[in-house]
Write a structure and sequence with these properties.
By secondary structure, the chain is an alpha+beta fold. It has two domains: 30 residues; 116 residues, Sandwich (Immunoglobulin-like), CATH 2.60.40.1890. It is built from one helix and ten strands. Strand 4 and strand 5 form a beta hairpin. Bound molecules: copper (II) ion. The site of copper (II) ion has 5 residues, from strand 8.
Length: 169
């Protein structure tokens, strides 16, 4: 049996190790001190048949600044762009417009993914083709509007991040 004092020392050591691990994970993932503003990754629009005039757009947004909010979006390719959430109601997945947009906490990455929050392009004015670039302007509560090129792709296709980096110009 270890004395209480020894146990406290062990607990303190474990706690320190735990804090170190957390700090390492945090720095390695989404918080880069050299980056500023809003960072965009993996922006893509779902390819839909010609007959469909609505589609979803997906994106990852990392906010390197202070608390912000994605408030609205617009595009020349669609009559309206809405911010939607998916919610299960009585076993059915349903979409709902997020009137307040999506909160972007400081130094966090939020993901708009199929089955989750997404941008809804309503009233498509052009037929989508695989690989086509669709510019969508994102409007924030604090940050300046950002024009982002979304790549048209199919579900499950790996989307390259390389051409989608768009820092806060
Ligand atoms: Cu939707």
């Amino acid at each position: 049996m270890k004395s209480l004092k020894q146990r406290v020392v062990i607990m303190k050591k474990l706690y320190l190790i735990f804090v170190l691990i957390l700090t390492t994970i945090h720095c390695g993932d989404e918080s880069h001190s050299d980056k500023k503003g809003i960072e965009i990754q993996g922006a893509w629009v779902r390819l839909v048949p010609k007959s469909s005039n609505v589609t979803g757009a997906y994106i990852q947004i990392t906010n390197h600044g202070e608390l912000d909010r994605l408030q609205a979006a617009r595009s020349d390719i669609a009559e309206t762009v809405e911010i939607h959430e998916m919610k299960e109601t009585e076993g059915m997945m349903q979409m709902r417009k997020l009137e307040q947009g999506i909160e972007l906490p400081s130094h966090k990455r939020i993901r708009l993914l199929p089955g989750g929050n997404h941008l809804m392009l309503i009233g498509l004015k052009k037929e989508l083709k695989p690989g086509m670039k669709v510019p969508i302007v994102l409007e924030f509560a604090k940050s300046a509007p950002l024009s982002v090129e979304f790549t048209v792709g199919e579900m499950g296709e790996p989307i390259s991040d390389s051409h989608n980096h768009d820092h806060n110009h």
